[in-house]
Structures
1.
Amino acid sequence: MQQGKIYDSFTEATADIFDGATLVVGGFGLCGIPEKSIAALQEQGVKELTVVSNNCGVDDFGLGILLQSRQIKKMVSSYVGENKTFEQQYLSGEIEVDLVPQGTLAERIRAGGAGIPGFYTPTGVGTPIAEGKEQKQFDGKTYLLEEGIVGDFALVKAWKADKLGNLVFRKTSRNFNPLVATAGKVTIVEVEELVEVGELDPNEIHTPAVYVQRIIVGTDYEKRIERRTVREA
Amino acid sequence: MQQGKIYDSFTEATADIFDGATLVVGGFGLCGIPEKSIAALQEQGVKELTVVSNNCGVDDFGLGILLQSRQIKKMVSSYVGENKTFEQQYLSGEIEVDLVPQGTLAERIRAGGAGIPGFYTPTGVGTPIAEGKEQKQFDGKTYLLEEGIVGDFALVKAWKADKLGNLVFRKTSRNFNPLVATAGKVTIVEVEELVEVGELDPNEIHTPAVYVQRIIVGTDYEKRIERRTVREA
Amino acid sequence: MATSRDIIINRALQEIEDGMYVNLGIGIPTLIANAIPNDRHVMLQSENGLLGIGPYPLEHEVDADEINAGKETVTAQKGASYFDSAESFAMIRGGHIDLAILGGMEVAENGDLANWMIPGKMVKGMGGAMDLVNGAKRVVIIMEHVNKYGESKVKSSCTLPLTGSQVVHRLITDKAVFDFTDAGMVLIETLAGLTVEDIRAVTEANFTVSPELERMPVGE
Amino acid sequence: MATSRDIIINRALQEIEDGMYVNLGIGIPTLIANAIPNDRHVMLQSENGLLGIGPYPLEHEVDADEINAGKETVTAQKGASYFDSAESFAMIRGGHIDLAILGGMEVAENGDLANWMIPGKMVKGMGGAMDLVNGAKRVVIIMEHVNKYGESKVKSSCTLPLTGSQVVHRLITDKAVFDFTDAGMVLIETLAGLTVEDIRAVTEANFTVSPELERMPVGE
């Protein structure tokens, strides 16, 4: 319920994100990222963030802008290759990075939200990822123990929300967003469209309202495309 | 793809289910159970089944009919209280039962389908369920190790399928079905309606076609109600 | 005169605050749903995959595909959502449900709960209870204070196999309300008409008495 | 004359059978998609959450919300589905994807694969590669047989950090095709024009030769 979930401004919705907080952030590349919440964080000026997100944006868009303003202390990602600012800060030791296989990252976030503190996966066995991790055999095969992730805040981008916080995502902009929505102590969702309660088909809701603490409507989404590939008619 | 997924008869779709097989079966109580596939199994006569399913039907409907014909050797369930045949066979030692907390059962089936051999859960710590299970501390709290479940066959009831095997479930008849669909070496799905490819909105598919090996259309669903509760107008 | 059940339900109702997501166990807890005042907007979760349980259906609305965890036909309220069982228990285990109100057979002074099996009797199963008591943010148990032989169900330690270890936040009986704190079990309310001494007389568990002890309001 | 890339792509195409669910890695493997004959009905999975990748969009169809794992704009074919990243990797890790075709930097005779980092160089991340090689039913690696210095990339053991240990089922290079079996690495095809001896000369790894060794068809 909590009709009071709806916020009027991104400034207000992100105001209590504190220095040193862990943020879990939705999106894949620049697709489905909470671009307005990220921009608000740059304005807000919070520092020393640990950010769990599959990628780190590009130099001047998405999470990349928080790198430029030196607000991120550590990234937990599967791929950070699209970002020169990242590369500079990484090589100079300004930023820490914890590289996590994409499937493991997705499962760790889902596990965190689902109250599962740890699980075993075959991914990474025999690779540098296995270093320092507990291993265990099941049916004669070796698996790594990986831990669930819960953030102080989760930043989510959805297509539509109803006023209770039920969410629907669009096409591949869904990606990490539904898992991220479950894994924040406070989950902040920006949406393109806010609809009345009852307008979403209960059979087709991707994220039930229980996971959502704050909803804000964004306007003028840039939705930048990283690789515009087209075919001839 | 595999346009050849569509079967004309339940007899054919369940013909290779073998004695001693492990079946993972969808449904909660009598809601969303693959009632036609279960009936076909009774006719087919397969024996010594291990059945993983939240409940065991009632005496004369659902999985209960396989108890009556003594085809089940072991049930893995969270609640079996609606069934007198079960009670008799259990007390006489004819049938084994492995009681698993409902959330753990759901997660074990999901884990099996997702290639996760084991995970930790707080559920059951300090109870008889914990006996013989490995325990581990995370952040000073104790958790139990539980293992993923994969069946030789999964029996699923869906509302609609397209001809590729994309599935949509209806209301609370969804329950265990989407997880069960992922956890069979062979997943057999019975549906009320088969639609053309492209008729289901790709954004609203509950189970992607990749999990489905066989599809059969059922007719004249009984959908028996266990507790018909109504209010006055 | 209010029955034990009425007293328990009325007191349990006070636990349900506006805006909460709540799971009500099968049996007596389910009855609480009908008593929730209209001005308290809550969403009731049913662990078989529904958030936003509505009232029982009218005769013509009955739908075999829409039941609650007690297998009763229900409806969905506006703003409800359906989901699968793994998602449902992710929601429960992950601490997203504000409150679970469940029945009990025994509660011990350390917050242990037993409510799923009696040795020697046919064990029907724990259903979702073990997940709920370990997952919900707050676990409130409702039960009669004594059994039919007049023996205390509020124990120094449970004699029945546990459903959960140190999981109860609050216990509501027909005679008293207790909280379970780091400092042990605390009597916070007595039923109108009963004194602290009356409660001690029917309670096996050791407990302290809250300084702010109030009389427990009877549903009148 | 066919380039190395053409040879590899043409040979890799033979791996894709009618009815398969396939994940094609970023880079060269993605190019295979466009070459799949129309009579082979396959569903391509993109690990960012799409099963049933269609062709690149027409200019007016471009949609920022519809990309593949290489972050390219794509379309969805009829019968496609979208899902979240946990579901996507459940599908991959759980063995539901028939075939993954990925690029490689080094493959060792025991089936080890290295394709994600070079010590001393900026490490960009493994993305979904480690999950794919441990999850897909069948893992086919495509790469050039030798590096720009003429050194074999088909190794007795990998010198680069691994992506997966003993995960490769088949290796396709511009010179040969190898299978990885319990009995070790087996040469099953050579590129037309090359002999088994030619392959030995450019291969560091130890391998046996399949009795049914055929000439590898060049895409002509």
2.
Amino acid sequence: MKLTLTQEQSMLADSVTRFMTGKNATGEEESIWREVAELGWLGAGVGESAGGFGGGREMAIVMESVGGNELAEALAPVFVALAILEKSDPEAALISRIISGDVVACGLLPEMAADDSLQLEDEMTSVSGQFHALANVHRARHLVLALPEATLLLSVSDANVHLRSYRGMDGKTKSDLKLDHVALSEASVLSKGPDAVAALNRARVTHAAAITAECSGLAAALFQYTLDYVQQRRQFGQPIGGFQALQHRLVDMFVAVEEVQSLALAAARAATIEDAPESALSRAIAGASDRALHVAKEAIQLHGAVGMTEDLPLGAGLRRLKVLQLVPGGAETQKRRLLQSFN
Amino acid sequence: MKLTLTQEQSMLADSVTRFMTGKNATGEEESIWREVAELGWLGAGVGESAGGFGGGREMAIVMESVGGNELAEALAPVFVALAILEKSDPEAALISRIISGDVVACGLLPEMAADDSLQLEDEMTSVSGQFHALANVHRARHLVLALPEATLLLSVSDANVHLRSYRGMDGKTKSDLKLDHVALSEASVLSKGPDAVAALNRARVTHAAAITAECSGLAAALFQYTLDYVQQRRQFGQPIGGFQALQHRLVDMFVAVEEVQSLALAAARAATIEDAPESALSRAIAGASDRALHVAKEAIQLHGAVGMTEDLPLGAGLRRLKVLQLVPGGAETQKRRLLQSFN
Amino acid sequence: MDAGWSPEDRAFRKEVRDFTQEKLPAAIRDKVMSGRPLERQDYMRWQDILAQKGWIAGFWPKCHGGQDWTASQSYIFQEETTYAGAPWLLPFGVNYVGPVIYTYGTEEQKARHLPGIVSNEVFWCQGYSEPNAGSDLARLSTRAHRDGDSYIVTGSKIWTSMAHWADWIFALVRTDSDAKPQAGISFLLIDLNSPGITIQPIQSIEGAHHLNQVFFDNVRVPVDNRIGEENAGWTYAKFLLGHERVLSAEIGKAKRMLERLRSLAEERNLARDPRYLENLARLETDVLALEWTTLRMLDTVMGGTAPGVEASMLKLRGSTVVQEIAEYTVDVLGHEALAFDPLFLEETINDPSSELSRNMGVVSEFLFQRAPTIWGGSNEIQRNIISKHALGLG
Amino acid sequence: MDAGWSPEDRAFRKEVRDFTQEKLPAAIRDKVMSGRPLERQDYMRWQDILAQKGWIAGFWPKCHGGQDWTASQSYIFQEETTYAGAPWLLPFGVNYVGPVIYTYGTEEQKARHLPGIVSNEVFWCQGYSEPNAGSDLARLSTRAHRDGDSYIVTGSKIWTSMAHWADWIFALVRTDSDAKPQAGISFLLIDLNSPGITIQPIQSIEGAHHLNQVFFDNVRVPVDNRIGEENAGWTYAKFLLGHERVLSAEIGKAKRMLERLRSLAEERNLARDPRYLENLARLETDVLALEWTTLRMLDTVMGGTAPGVEASMLKLRGSTVVQEIAEYTVDVLGHEALAFDPLFLEETINDPSSELSRNMGVVSEFLFQRAPTIWGGSNEIQRNIISKHALGLG
């Protein structure tokens, strides 16, 4: 078994944490996005043959830290884009331009689209679809779509690509996207048939590993705040962590955090194999989200009044986890998908 | 407001409790059934004009004590039969014979039948249907069916009425019933049209009031056992009721018991009016069952090993509540009905 | 279902319903219904309407400006107005300090302070909690020492709702530091215009500013503004907490929120979605149980028995049920709930005409409803109270 | 998903799977799969098969009759056999007293007792709990006083699983009543055929008889049957509890039960029922989380770190998840679950051919699965342990 981190992976985790510590990066800023790219973190999403240094586990390490430090920059869609591109053509020049931060590309999955709106039309010569609340698309030059029939690379500057951006519940910029009969050239179809299915599988695994890792980092941080608080906050002559009723609730939070980490590990490990069952990925996302949300709510409750204020990052954590639950492709989407699978 | 018991109601409650106290009536026995009838409790189900002394609240008082003392005799189906008969013809001679215990009759509702099996056939000249796990039908001479189209009185001795009896999870005799084109004479159709609908409404309210009252009595008794136990059982140098984590769980049980009582009261009060919304009755049954089951499971857990033994009536309470959940017409049926109602 | 209301109660319910329907300004109702935060003038406008009708302090004795309402009338008034979308009737004057003043105050205090509450002219706030005394009120450390006919008050109060809008604050202060924690506390009425007071806003996680920290730097308060005996403030504080909890089960609000939930779900074609229906059934069952528990308690109060731990139970369940409805409403909105940043709630947009932020109220309310399980004695404290007083456990 | 098993582990998994498929008697497998209670001969027959293969005590050192299995081999063995429907491998000899004997026993004790465990010839049971010492083991009051080369033991042990089938019992007894509770306890091996022992059955709520109370009335036990030092029994008892908990997460069982749940639901045309699918998804997610938490812990153990509170966490979650699957399986049966009276489980019908009682195993198991959250240190005790040792709270 090889579930513990390798030496290289531990070094990556340390370096990411070092960068985050003390940095207030909870607001989206162009300069921070540049810095992240310059540090090479995006290379954690692809293997060496594609110019990176990573894989599922390395990406998860970065995403866990993103969550734990409430970094506002949305890396997940870029990791999904990289995963699709690597699967389609590991030598594509675009990959290295994305890793270096020259260009932003976001990956999209069919389950992120509004109901039944995503359609390949006219014998695969154009595509239409609507997406809501996408992260980081406002910065993107390219969209990479993994469909079961074809893998597509679109330019955001296409006249038939319509974007409307706004601030979201988690303070990050969100965008609604409309593809209105966007014409597909030969160059924009990266793969078809079984290769497209393989790219879609890879994209789903990456998406699941990224979301669960973010939940994991967030849940662990919110739990740690709470554990520290109950040891220091005194009421009725003792630290409130001395009260057994609170201890048992903290234990249930601790167990929930451990289980989020387990589900995140399962998803990250799935990124290393080809045949991860889709339903297991959906369960990992749904389970990680449910547990992390429980931790966030308990964190606020056990802090008492101060937990309701913006002086602590608890409310921000709750809002962020609510987004991961409700965003198309997130936990609610996965739960609906599980109701449609019959084995 | 008149939510507290009247003097007569309090006297009834006392007398029922007095009869139960010290009596081991947790096994079904013909002699106990006779005794219950002789004491006149069945008269709690109908008003004075029909030869009884009660209504919804009086019946609930009896049923609460039936639950609280884990009396094995199944009174609820008889109360439902009485309610239907009273609504159809308050002067029917059969009512007094049922109250006196001469004859047992059980009331049946459409939602107790196996899926879509209950049918009036051949221009209302015969009826067919299948029922599972009915209580007390093995003793019954008559079946009283409240259908929206007609109210029916059937004789169990009819050649086309098939019965198979067996012991159930709660230790009570259960019967599967098959009505196989049972011919309907004029005398067997007690009412039709709006009168039949009114009888069905009345039957549903009675059924809801009876089940929720039984849950209420059971939950209160299981809670009280547990509260007594934690005050007396010592571990680590103090009564286990001194541990705050257990205290908070006992509080949640206490609140659950109070809410079961509230839901039972709502259902019993509904029995006094004509227009109780069906969905509220379904909610009362489902909510009472969920809460009482929670109390039963916690009662076993907080007792520890001794809670797993037949030396205490906790397991019997859990089995009995599980029956009220799963029996056709019980909590699961009501939850399914709530998924079909759209307002 | 029928709770057996008397003909008088039924008539009163109709009167309240008709009055609210006629008089509640549509703009205020819309804000409340959608969950958007209210401004000072919204509260005051509605309370002025109630004051004119004499309904601000209906449960007070007539001699102090009330209507001698029975417990069931108070309940009906609260349920009907809340269900109809009226703002929360601010409790600081009417429910909290008012009864303390008419029960324990001097004739001068009554004459000076009660009319301003009944007429809605004076805005009160509550100075109980301190940074180091949350659930454990007895540990408070704001001090008052005598200087002639005055106390000199120094320290700070926190989580003071709406202090930035208020005229007066009632506060617990320590007047004897040598006494045991619960002794040595006095109950003062303090004019917020007094020199030495500063009010600092606290931003809440839903983006609103309703909480404050109030600092007292050698604030001079006349001894005449003390309620009752020196060092006996704990008695009045406990009396007040009893009043606070009776009102905490919010049936009208829960029903109003369920209705909004149903209509939002229908707009989104979820009316037959089994997941939605299952959640709705659960929440509706919770509200039914809460309502009948409240009615049972009301019946007991009407029968002359003072409410005991039942009030804690209603606080516990009421806050939890409303919190769950608020969260599930956001879940039903789905991605539409994401198009709004609560941290910009007050600064930018409080404008329902923006399409993207039309659900802002629902989001804001989801976050805000994390508070009621904390405030007014957290639900953990309520469990301790029930354990001790209803179950007889330690 | 892939946990990165080594080629050796994969090969071992295949070996265990093939062996179990070939050797596990169908009648036993059927009983286990359906949830019906096993008889003594069912356990013994399967364990004889394992003993022949040398797999009864695979994790023991080779010198004592084991196979020197790694932690991952033990895990794989347990998961595969359980998933395939093998009976619970009774832990009293193999997991509990065996390691105590080879770690702390004398050479004579090793020679006398270990072979009987490895060969499955001696049936052990565990004498820890007493009527007044449940979670609080240190308060036990069964006494042993010295009489020459013997102890004279008087008192009783309760919740003794399968004592009525057992040959020997290992028991904690008080040898010094003046010492502090945890001191003054000794660890004795007692032949159940000794004069003065009576065993009284306890009926469980699922109708089965597996629990007993064992009474000791001046039972003579040779001093040579004491493990280690007099009054140092607490040390050996804690060592044993550590072993007990490592094995408690029952992934194989949970997966087997989920499969049965799915097939029962499909038989009843529920495969597309949204309520069923939602519950199934929740339970499957719980099992996925439990499995990967177990794998992470196994990885830590393989890395050389002894498991600490993680074992408590697996006990807590494992028992809860299995309990919930067992209950929901009954719910899926619906009214079909009602046609069976558990209190007549052993007396009448243990006969799957009766149509009405074909689901008896599911019902019996639902009731029986209330026990694992209580036994082996109740889940409340596990929370105390985690709070203290993982969170550093009191």
